[in-house]
Amino acid sequence: MTLNLAADPIALTAALVDIPSVSRDEAAIAGAVEAALRAQTTGFEVLRHGNCVLARTDRGLPQRVLLAGHLDTVPIADNVPSRRETRASAATGDETRASAATGDETRASAATGDVEEVLYGCGTVDMKSGDAVFLHLAATLAEPAYDLTLIFYDCEEIEARFNGLGAIERELPEWLAADVAILGEPSGGLIEAGCQGTLRVRVTAGGTRAHSARSWLGDNAIHRLGKVLAVLAAYRARTVDIDGCEYREGLSAVRVEGGVAGNVVPDEAFVDVNFRFAPDRSVDQALQHVRETLAPVFDGDPLLSLELTDSVAGALPGLAAPAAARLVDAAGGRFRAKYGWTDVSRFAARGIPAVNYGPGDPNLAHKRDEHVPVAQITEVTDTLRRFLSAEPA
Amino acid sequence: MTLNLAADPIALTAALVDIPSVSRDEAAIAGAVEAALRAQTTGFEVLRHGNCVLARTDRGLPQRVLLAGHLDTVPIADNVPSRRETRASAATGDETRASAATGDETRASAATGDVEEVLYGCGTVDMKSGDAVFLHLAATLAEPAYDLTLIFYDCEEIEARFNGLGAIERELPEWLAADVAILGEPSGGLIEAGCQGTLRVRVTAGGTRAHSARSWLGDNAIHRLGKVLAVLAAYRARTVDIDGCEYREGLSAVRVEGGVAGNVVPDEAFVDVNFRFAPDRSVDQALQHVRETLAPVFDGDPLLSLELTDSVAGALPGLAAPAAARLVDAAGGRFRAKYGWTDVSRFAARGIPAVNYGPGDPNLAHKRDEHVPVAQITEVTDTLRRFLSAEPA
């Protein structure tokens, strides 16, 4: 299948959706993207690396912008090929977007009048519309004001160890150099800056096993978890403002498990707790906070223990950096905090300001009825074209 | 393999252990038992029913005693064939037995001096030693004072629906008629009367699913379980005396489970709770008690619900019945409450007094190092011979 990069990015989004690319099965789409970049762009060095496709200019411009998007999707759920529909404009409902600055607010659809065009299909939101915008701009920007690096990568939707951008970080780190990085992840057409950190701890409760018919001979590990859950239920999360972005933290039990058999007092149970923390805390500081929060129930009970199982640092918004500030300007000054962890933190860890900016409501990602208002694709394309064409100061 | 029923029941126990009979694989042992009963007893009607072997006399005696034992074992764990060992007499340690009447007490081993003979092997405790005692008595009782019914059955160690005694209850109920039933389950050589009832409820907590990065949009079902576990941890179980047997109840979480993914606030979690209740409560009354116990956390929270998943009634001790009282006399007046649920409750449900009485420490059942002091086999045999030979009043 040949992709036409010069076509409307809405049509290009549909064409990308119509090439199935569930994680671990990206060879076809990577091949189509590589061929199109080689044939339909000028001035780019193009490199295929596994199922990643990389392209960059080297015009000697003073600054470099990196555009990155993953090519894979979650499993298809009867939602490929794409289909375009006209529907009543949804000024409220699933087009309602949370604004970090002012709380929930309703934003009018970009479509005028009472109807809007919508594109349905797996990946329309997450994130082939973002990929389409980047590919279209690479082929059609007449006078880019920045050198450009494009990275299309695989395996973002599965375990982190398979992540294609992670592979590039390890194997081709020089390709990640940039003054600002834009990930085309769905952000509802708003710039989402930074991201929260996340860590998981496993709180394990011990006890003494016994037959439940003689429960007094045992010491029930599941019962012991009760006081841990009580602390989590009572926890009041912090909200903090960084660079004008409001971050709201959260401490959540995400898994609980215990039990030996229906007639046994169990001697072990655990609860996995996920702490999402604002990027003004390091992982160590965040872990310390979790320990302090649970200290009242841990102290004096040697049968409760805590182990860090997983952590990634957050990313400070970095909007003070000049190229990032100009991007915010081009987007009309609108931005908000990103809550979920995304690959932007890989750039933040390298000192590169990075934002999420792409069409589509992130709440529709991974849904069977995943769909994007096509006007958002146009809007993001126009904003990025404006940003990338302006002279850096 | 030919079983010699007239031999010492210790040797007969070893012979039975040496015929592997894991649940669902009892054909060989049932065949050996059937053949031996047909060839080596007189006055018995013998019936093979699946892998159950039934035998009964009909001498027109005024009362009937039923002796029942299962032939199957849990899976073998390198502990077949049996082996006999001499060891230092364990007057304490695993020979310590809980007495319902007086709390824990240490009972001197039946072995004299400082050493005792022990028989190791899968089924030595649970419950081929009990089977051996019954088979030996059937072949050697010169003048039984009662008509006898013997039932050897299969599939006691697996799901209740396979239980061979259950099959006889449904298909040959007339075989269960008796004035007292003795199950040869391991009881440490003490008469264990009645049994507690057991029921399980699943307490399910609902909530609202959300990404854990935006946990305030969700309502965490696992957190909600905290208050349920707090009630269980604080519960003070009742102790009640019935017919001189002390029953101690227990309310235990036996399983807890919840969680969708490591980054999701879960909308469902559950805890399975096992209530072991004294036989003065019916199942309905016991369930009502569980509901009342949890009412403080359930009231006003429509996202907590409770469902009965499993129940069996307890069995009143029934020691006031004449034949049961004589058995207690023959055993020197020693008895205690049975805690675990056993097949005795099938007889209790039919109005037949039923006790557990067999050699072996029940705490060693299902263990790799399962073993029985051989003196207990002799002691139980002697007691039952005394009981079955005496004229009923």
Automatic annotation (TrEMBL), chains A, B:
Cofactor requirements of the protein: Zn(2+)
Tagged with keyword Magnesium: no
Chain positions covered by the region annotation Disordered: 78-109
EC top class named in words: hydrolase
EC number(s) given by UniProt: 3.5.1.18
Annotated Gene3D superfamilies: 3.30.70.360, Zn peptidases
Keyword Zinc among UniProt keywords: yes
Record's keyword terms, sorted: Hydrolase, Metal-binding, Zinc
Pfam families xrefs: M20_dimer, Peptidase_M20
Domain of life: Bacteria
Domain Peptidase M20 dimerisation residues, every copy: 197-296
Name the UniProt record assigns to this protein: Succinyl-diaminopimelate desuccinylase
UniProt organism field: Tsukamurella soli
